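Q: Sequence in, structure out?
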Amino acid sequence: MRHFVIASATDRLNERKWELTSAYLKIIDQFDSDLFVYAYCTQGNFQFVLLTTKREEGNVKAFFESMHEVVVKMRMNPFFYDGGGGGGGDDDDGGNAGGGEEDWLATSASFDAKVRRCSRVLG
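A: Exactly. Output:
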């Protein structure tokens, strides 16, 4: 059920990111009275969505800011992504052959460890 809550909240995220000027969008959706969906959208249009049962604005904002920093550092690292075809080539897809960087981040053990480390702030 939580997957459906997050999927429905992404529609609200796409509306809300144009209404506010800050990256931290706060609570974008709520289900029943115990599930809260928070969102954060970077200038590069990386969208973070967090589903939690706690309503702790300060911790959630700190988590999103930490995650933003992790993503920026990983994307700036010239060795962070290997597109399967040597990466960074002059092909039409910008070196993202074989899935793209979002897929790489989703399956990266290093990125997963950094997400878990950032999530400690949530308690």
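The chain has two domains: 1-55, 56-123.
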